User: What shape does this take?
Amino acid sequence: MNTLFTRRNVEFPAQDGVILRGWLYEPISKQDDKQRYPAIVITHGYGAVKELFVDKYAERFVQSNFVVLLYDHENFGESSGEPRQEIDPNKQVQGYSSAITYLQSLIDLVDSNRIGIWGTSYSGGHVLVVSANDKRVKCVVSQMPSINGRKNLKRRNKTEENYQRLLKALERDQKQREEGGIPRIIPIIRPEEQPDWWNFFDVGHAEEKDKWRYKNWKNEQTLHSVQLYGEYNPEESIEKISPCPLLMLVADHDTVTFSEDEIEVFEQRAGEPKKLVKFNGDHFSAYKDQFELTANEANDWFKKYLQS
Assistant: This one.
């Protein structure tokens, strides 16, 4: 495995003109001649930023001689966009295609016919949609994907009364925005209700060596983001992915994106070639306890279909 690589800051335009910013990882070739590499686009999940352990995957891939583009979604981290902290799945899906276009512009570095995409959690759902519709994608890895937003919201709210209360809040927020009011901001995580989520996202629970990762993260989202989440169903795209090779990684105790939904849609609706990998742990295990397993499975999948 090649351990030498460089990382530099880059920016590129999204389809709506917003500037997306991130890091471009390049292998350091031991050859004197110019070499064009297969490339992988990766980005973070719901309400996160690129620094929150996603860069570990980028480093693993670049060490196997991939060019890797890791960036912050629109409205988050170092990327531009308004309103800040609005999580718009449609714009995030478009961001992936803009990232592919940027990679294809690097004609002396990237082989434009060998580009893959990787996503996790919310962006794990995005890559299902992107690979179904953007046929420049030649390989896809979907880690713990969000499958059905409405179903997830109903489960998380636990009772029909809580769910109806949420719907009324969304209606009030929409009316306020239509009348020119500012978007309502709410927490992404309520620590007392979601302690496992908080243990991952709270800098106070981080090891000293990882505290830098939380600089750009905010426990904020627009309430409109929740409405958009509930309207977003990546499962509707999965049948159109084939013949693009699909690897799905699923945690066996996932109560964020729900393991049973992921497995069902993969087994019943995804076409070949495909592979399902189940691992022990919850939604956040992939980034820490099960990082070696999830990173190596993804790396091997990309090598098989982008380098062979």
User: Anything to note?
Assistant: Strands lie at 5-13, 19-27, 37-43, 67-71, 110-120, 137-143, 185-186, 221-222, 246-251, 274-279. The first helix runs from residue 54 to 62.
